[in-house]
Amino acid sequence: MQLDLGFVRASFPAFAVPDLANRAFFENAGGSYASQPVIDRLTRFYRERKVQPYGPYAASSEGGAEMDEARLRLAAMMGVKTHEVSFGPSTTQNTYVLAQAFRRDLKPGEAIVVTDQDHEANSGPWRRLGEEGIEIREWKIDPTTGHLDPARLAPLLADGRVRLVCFPHCSNVVAEINPVAEIVAMAHDAGAATCVDGVSYAPHGLPNVAEIGADIYLFSAYKVYGPHQGIMVIREDLGMRLPNQGHYFNGDMLYKRFTPAGPDHAQVAASAGIADYFDALHAHHFGPEPDAARRAAQVHDLMRAHEVAVCQPLLDYLGARNDLRLIGPRDATRRAPTVAVALDREAEPVSAALADHGINCWAGDFYAVRPLTAMGVDLDRGVLRLSMVHYTSAGDVTRLITALDKVL
């Protein structure tokens, strides 16, 4: 089954905007375009249901029902219980709240493992717990390739004092897809829970969190064609054991325990549009399938196959140049289609020059200061990042390569 790119692009109003339609968008890792169902739901909520939800009158009860629908449908797609999904203003804030819960739960002598492959959102909040007397152990990447080797994790777990292992599904600059299920199994065997940052992976197909076994899985809706919300899965046994971070009278509701402030009602409701879009993709490409997790898995594979096909020519082109360093694997099947390169010059002027050729992208450190530093990348120069998703076309990539030839 091949992805119908015409159908896909018709689902994103951005492609009908003149100033966007005539340009190739390669900054998807910073935030993807919003799909039509998400925009429709957000507009409807603000127009018809912008009241306190869950009240006894129609506008209020319908608003609450849409919020519940978002949680219900996204949970089903990821193979978890509805109340194991919660929303927050961002993944960074969700992680910070989690860190405060673990700060109160961990005992002297216990440890947390973090990596130097992570975006700072899944590293900084945990590292700060070192100031509270919690031991922080760093799982280091290979400084040449950026690879996060599970063999290097084993010694960190050997003494049985680690209670949490935090790592990315894939890095936002290295992009290699880590073997999450294998790492989770190692952590569980050592008596540790896991916190997986899925921000850079989820746009390429929602994972089945139950199958990979993660205790916590975090991602950002605005990178998965939705509104600016952080979405968090926390498994019930762990979430109910950790200290409540919400209002004390909501402590028996898992999806409220790690939401200290009220969520953005409209954006939570609009997140059901993510499920609308994924289900529309499935209906267009496949036959009927009543199981939401199976639908999500088929859409995941459909999207990934397209992304691998369009990404590989760019990797081949960049890998053949001798004036830049391609970060991460050269095989598109082993990585997300987020491609960072360290140049022989400052990267941001190059991204500006590409804009003159109809290529929208950016440069910098992308809050990935630790992995870039570990790999010896000059932070003053930064990296040029070229990120794709399933609505990226082969023609977009050809246009990018032509522009790179001129600019570099």
From TrEMBL:
<keyword id="KW-0032">Aminotransferase</keyword>
<feature type="domain" description="Aminotransferase class V">
    <location>
        <begin position="25"/>
        <end position="242"/>
    </location>
</feature>
<dbReference type="InterPro" id="IPR015424">
    <property type="entry name" value="PyrdxlP-dep_Trfase"/>
</dbReference>
<protein>
    <submittedName>
        <fullName>Aminotransferase class V-fold PLP-dependent enzyme</fullName>
    </submittedName>
</protein>
<keyword id="KW-0808">Transferase</keyword>
<dbReference type="InterPro" id="IPR015422">
    <property type="entry name" value="PyrdxlP-dep_Trfase_small"/>
</dbReference>
<keyword id="KW-0663">Pyridoxal phosphate</keyword>
<dbReference type="InterPro" id="IPR000192">
    <property type="entry name" value="Aminotrans_V_dom"/>
</dbReference>
<dbReference type="Pfam" id="PF00266">
    <property type="entry name" value="Aminotran_5"/>
</dbReference>
<dbReference type="GO" id="GO:0008483">
    <property type="term" value="F:transaminase activity"/>
</dbReference>
<feature type="domain" description="Aminotransferase class V">
    <location>
        <begin position="303"/>
        <end position="400"/>
    </location>
</feature>
<dbReference type="InterPro" id="IPR015421">
    <property type="entry name" value="PyrdxlP-dep_Trfase_major"/>
</dbReference>
